[in-house]
Amino acid sequence: MDAIKPLPHVSSFSASVFTFLDDRFRDAADLSQSSGLVSELETEISELNQRLAELNRQLESGLASYASFSDRIGGLLIGVNAKLADLSSSTSASDGGKEEETTEHVAGEELPSLAKEVAQVESVRAYAETALKLDTLVGDIEDAVMSSLNKNLRTSRSSGFEEVRLHAIKTLQKTEEILSLVAKRHPRWGRLVSAVDHRVDRALAMLRPQAIADYRALLTSLGWPPQLSNLTSSSLDSKSDDVQNPLFNMEGNLKSQYCGNFHALCSLQGLQLQRKSRQLGSHKGENVLFHQPLWAVEELVNPLIVASQRHFAKWSEKPEFIFALVYKITRDYVDSMDELLQPLVDKAKLAGYSCREEWVSAMVSSLSLYLVKEIFPTYVGQLNEPDLSSEAKVSLLHLIDLMISFDKRVQSLVSQSGILSLQEDGNLLRISSLSVFCDRPDWLDIWAEIELDERLVKLKAEMDNDRNWTVKVQDELISTSNIYRPPIVSSILLQHLSSIIERSKSVPAIYLRARFLRLAASPTIQKFLDSLLLRCQEAEGLTALTENNDLIKVSTSINAGHYIESVLEEWCEDVFFLEMGTGQDSSQEAPGLENFTEPSEGIFGEEFEKLEKFRQEWINKLSVVVLRGFDARTREYIKNRKQWQEKRDKEWTVSRALVGALDYLQGKTSIIEENLNKADFTATWRSLASEIDKLFFNSILMANVKFSDDGVERFREDMEVLYGVFRAWCVRPEGFFPKLSEGLTLLKMKEKQVKEGLSRGEKWLHENGVRHLNEAEAKKIAKSRVFSLV
């Protein structure tokens, strides 16, 4: 039987041994477990001996590998030295011409091969040193990871445990720096990098879960999450002054442990981001690197949300309480993110991360996940039930109103830091509850459909009110209102469109905003355009637009359409709409949007085309209607071919048969001028002048009529009166009657001048200002002239 060895003296015990014994033997009753402790220690010693033996074998293998590399390098160096010696001896033994010949031979053949061999030796040496260095670092990492998982070291919660993990992280960072340098400078060493990555990945696969588990356990010991049982619906909207925040209550060793764990998690995450950047950067570039939530902050949020869901279940029919609770939690603890945790993130050199932003983002993401799983399916399902359909629509719109309001409030919490640019879609997606539509665009379609139905019901009631078509818009803030003189119903439409556009701005993705506007705003514009077209068609069908009231009705509709067109054009110059046409946020990667394409001419491109087509069509009809009435009243005037050879009545400055037609023309154009906007009225009277010019030119000047001197004077006076009708809108109205004015120019010329001039052809016509008549038309007009014999 082996003699029992005496115990060592107490004074020789280290501090760690005292701590271990104090933990194991707190009172006399624990002495009964000493045999079990001995067995446990013997087992652990055996495992450590096995691990030590394995490490020794690895060390021997590494040394043998290094020795092999050294032998190979030594052999290469010996060969190089031998060749250098041969080169030296051959150089010294040569003379004269032989010396020159040997030098050329060495320079041409020996030196390049020698340089190549030296470079190979240097490359092998560098590879061997790098491989040995990486093998040593990875071995240290594996040892540190295994030590950090040692249950005795972990249960003692000694400073050695934290130091071991910190040493593992620092070694990982150093290894990553070397790998990045190798990947950049030596791309052919890919197998070495891949082998090291494989071993590092195995180490991280053990280190990260354990670090998270330790962090969770530490949060539990801190009393996180704080109690939510004392919350009431009345206290959700008020900020509590006595919020229990365990993060602010930490002291001494507990605070040091928490800060160490938080810093370790941040460092691990930063390391992983560096590795992903290196591994993916050479293949797909930086665009594939997505933003990862901050692990340490996520672990703070998850238990809070789990505790909150007990309240969510009671408020399924009162979602405003759910949003209020999430906002209250987010707001009450957001300050601790800046004051306590942000310095730790900065210390871990985790670039691009704001704890305030990550806290808000994690809370919003958790809420969005709950909405997707529990709230939206219930609300959408009720839409298919006939008895609940109308109430379900109201409930869904109310839910979306709550989401929009919630997003604005939490985004204000983030913007207070002055760091985040909320205009970037990636940031908006992470702090918007409306991001639920990114994965479920069919829910967005349902929202747009309900929004459209509600707007159309309200708009129809406004369009059916005749007073809204007679009262003009008087808004000094709208610069175009005075130009287009639109009815108030067009302003009502713009209010509805503005509301739809404002709601679409809350959607965090550009392609979804465009889709929402195409589904909700575009049909609203189309409905208004249909109403304009129907009013014009009714006026045309009843009286063929012969009555003044019908002209006013059509003019008002044109004004409304042109006003809407101009305002939409002004809106589309805004950055909000320009982004939709740049393709910045492609919908091709979004599920359920394969059949959705954005028109190249803009979000409202089709509506612009339809409004312009409507306006041009009915402007043309206005001029045609007036021309038709004018033509009917000038038939006797045109048929009287003899009047151009009779003596003119000096008491009349205009032909009697033309007076009624001119009065009709002036009356109708005045009605249109009073009611139609200036731009479209200008197009109307110019079109009308052009058609009258063609009418009189073809019916009189080209009708083989004979003009005497008095006839020419009468025709001139009649045309002057006709021009006078249009003189109110331009300085030289005859310029809009080119054929008539140039025909008169030819009629007023002397016989000799005309005959000699026409013999010279078109050149003479152009010299005399006749540019709209061809030579045949000029000759025909000249033949219609009857000159007196005097």
Automatic annotation (TrEMBL):
<dbReference type="InterPro" id="IPR042044">
    <property type="entry name" value="EXOC6PINT-1/Sec15/Tip20_C_dom2"/>
</dbReference>
<dbReference type="InterPro" id="IPR007528">
    <property type="entry name" value="RINT1_Tip20"/>
</dbReference>
<dbReference type="GO" id="GO:0006888">
    <property type="term" value="P:endoplasmic reticulum to Golgi vesicle-mediated transport"/>
</dbReference>
<dbReference type="Pfam" id="PF04437">
    <property type="entry name" value="RINT1_TIP1"/>
</dbReference>
<feature type="coiled-coil region">
    <location>
        <begin position="31"/>
        <end position="65"/>
    </location>
</feature>
<protein>
    <recommendedName>
        <fullName>RINT1-like protein MAG2</fullName>
    </recommendedName>
</protein>
<dbReference type="GO" id="GO:0006890">
    <property type="term" value="P:retrograde vesicle-mediated transport, Golgi to endoplasmic reticulum"/>
</dbReference>
<dbReference type="GO" id="GO:0070939">
    <property type="term" value="C:Dsl1/NZR complex"/>
</dbReference>
<dbReference type="GO" id="GO:0060628">
    <property type="term" value="P:regulation of ER to Golgi vesicle-mediated transport"/>
</dbReference>
<keyword id="KW-0175">Coiled coil</keyword>
